[in-house]
Design goal:
homodimer; about 400 residues; alpha+beta; Aminopeptidase; Alpha-Beta Plaits; 2 domains; nine-stranded mixed sheet; four-stranded antiparallel sheet; 12 helices
Chain lengths: ~400, ~400
């Protein structure tokens, strides 16, 4: 079955992605932190490519690259990001940008389609300086003071200094023109193994989870590890370990099938081999697309802290340090992606949520937004071995272009 | 009952301890790290006091202060240390030095006793630069290369630079003259609450525990905390928590009543809130005075690691990074201390092991050695609130002097 329209050029998409991989190559992946020379060279690469799609681009005062055109008629915005996590994969970000570029090249040059696709590369999606700073700036959610305060997490360098050094200081920041777009579509590697395990090719994203974060603190009594009898200890580290195990045992009964939770950091104080820790802290994260589930889990956590404190010998306290905002994806765009998948990968798509954060969750605040996933080999991500087969990359591009066409022509 | 001999002057002992507390005072404790101006001033204080006991002292090339006399006849060596843990208590170290000074003042000036007491302040017992460096140097267990490599744990400063700055570079290091002493006696605060809880006044130390240390490593798979389903995770941090809890549950059945064990440090790698830890490590310590017990516990640990690895999803490996050497105290000296306690604190002494390390465990390699404990209020140590009542300090001094007399005159 064909659509009667030009489709994505898979070979060109793969060639483009390999050109981007060559900029800042690290093993089979890349290393291009935000505002690194390799990141800026990748933006320059995109600027050179945009005219092929009838677009011209500029980089704004926070590092967003937006490529716009003069074509009248309905417009879609599509994109992702070009900087990478440190020493990480080649597709996390560039895949979505190159798909957007390909959609613009195909659709903007197709005389049978009256609409057009414009292309965005959002800055710092990977959070070297902040949290989704580029797309948040575009929707008007980043004050100058936030940029003043932002520093590179890896070396403490001020974002203002970084912006100055790459020549962006003082430039205006692009902001969304309400009503310009029918919607926003972003493609991404899945970063999990759901598609691969089931032999599927396209994920139709229904929502992006919210991230809730908690600082859980255990207070005992610091003492000498040699002279303090076991029976009289108030070991905050041991209390923490018991709490982690209790979460592992009790959360499944209260979580949804989609909920994930993680203890990513543990600190014992003072952290010396001969001292019983007097206090301990863990950073604990819950992700879900349903706030009601998290409310339930948060109540459970608080009850567990109360029980543990009452049982002793350490006090447990829980502080919520980040409240999640799940972002449902637009129903019409979901239908467009699913319809496109039915044409090019019949019965091999799946409606699924995104466990990772993406710029689409920010864009969803100001326009209908959607996402399309392609399979990740082994579910690996944020590592230089991250990969997707060429066939799946090409198929994803074809579905992406068709989904954009469907949104623009309202044939969902 | 009296002994017919001059006894310790409790008021003088307490006054001396307060003079030392005034040097480097921190809240109600002190802050005098090894080779700090306050540590060196404390050594200078002792040098000025020694002539009252018929002794003259010198500071050697590693910072040990040894006060010796010209008196013939049997000799005892007594002492402890004058530097402190950072921002810690006033008695940990100085108590033993001032008791030794008091014993020398009383006994060396007593015409009825033919023997004498000599006084030592061992350098760096608290391990700012190494492990019991001063006393180990005195028994011939510190090579020049160890000093070359030693650095201040808190700031990385080379020990050679510190020695040069306090004027000790190039000085010879004192070493034990075999046969000079009948034995070594060291007094210390208990640093636990055993004496206080039982209403006792004197601990007769039977042995100093050995310290065994292990690096326990958990290997899982680092992955994205949002996109990796709970069922497929290999969370090394969670495996570590389960292992800590298992130790807590299973160790008591295999330990002796004296065994203590501590997890003092935990590290998750990479330690970021949104990343499932791919590996995790804990520093685990066991202290006991019976190596057979530790052999049993080490087998248990290895069996537990094997079980956990087999059960999955993470591999657990155990590396012994320090082997303990328990030091039994000399039976004759134990009898002397107990006999002295029976005179001055009848039925209020207890034979007990030391859970903390002390210079006496090093001196025990070259001469009969013993220790005497006085109660610690609330069992608190290595903290500026560390304290012992004036009455207990004075009583301890009296028992200490009498114990030295008994060793010298062989009336145990």
């Amino acid at each position: 079955m064909t659509t009667g329209h030009a489709t994505a050029n898979g070979a060109r998409v793969i060639a483009d992605l390999n050109e981007l991989r060559a900029i800042g190559a690290y093993k089979s992946g890349v290393h291009k932190p935000t505002f690194s020379p390799e990141h800026m060279q990748s933006l320059a690469w995109l600027l050179r490519k945009l005219p092929d799609a009838g677009l011209s681009g500029t980089i704004d005062g926070i590092g967003n690259l937006i490529g716009t055109g003069e074509t009248a008629g309905p417009r879609m915005l599509a994109g992702s990001h070009l900087e990478s996590q440190s020493h990480a994969g080649w597709l996390d970000g560039p895949l979505g940008v190159v798909y957007a570029l390909e959609a613009a090249r195909i659709i903007n040059n197709d005389p049978n389609i009256s609409g057009s696709v414009e292309v965005a590369a959002w800055c710092d999606e990977e959070g070297h300086f902040g949290s989704l700073l580029g797309s948040r700036s575009y929707v008007g959610d980043v004050a100058e003071a936030e940029i003043d305060a932002a520093r590179d997490r890896s070396n403490g360098r001020a974002m203002r200094d970084a912006l100055r050094d790459v020549g962006l200081a003082g430039l205006p920041r692009a902001s969304v023109e309400r009503g310009r777009y029918l919607g926003y579509l972003e493609a991404h590697i899945e970063q999990g193994d759901t598609l691969e395990t089931r032999g599927l090719k396209i994920g139709v994203v229904t929502s992006i989870v919210g991230i809730w974060q908690y600082r859980i603190t255990f207070t005992g009594a610091q003492n000498h590890a040699g002279t303090t009898r076991m029976a009289t200890r108030k070991d905050a580290g041991l209390a923490l370990a018991h709490f982690c195990v209790a979460i592992d045992q009790r959360f499944p009964d209260f979580a949804s099938v989609r909920t994930v939770w993680t203890t990513g950091r543990i600190t014992l104080d003072p952290g010396a081999p001969s001292i019983i820790p007097g206090s301990a802290e863990m950073l604990f994260q819950i992700r879900d697309d349903d706030p009601d589930v998290v409310v339930r889990l948060e109540s459970l956590l608080q009850a567990m802290a109360k029980e543990a404190t009452a049982a002793g010998p350490c006090a447990v306290s829980i502080e919520c340090i980040r409240v999640g905002v799940p972002a449902p994806m637009d129903a019409g765009i979901q239908d467009a992606v699913e319809g496109a998948a039915e044409v090019h990968a019949p019965s091999r798509s799946l409606r699924m949520h995104s466990g990772a954060g993406h710029d689409a969750q920010i864009l969803a605040r100001v326009m209908p937004a959607g996402m399309l996933f392609v399979p990740s080999i082994g579910g690996i991500s944020h590592h230089w071995t991250e990969n997707t087969s060429d066939e799946d990359i090409a198929l994803g591009a074809t579905v992406f272009v068709e989904a954009c066409r469907r949104v623009l022509t309202a044939t969902c």
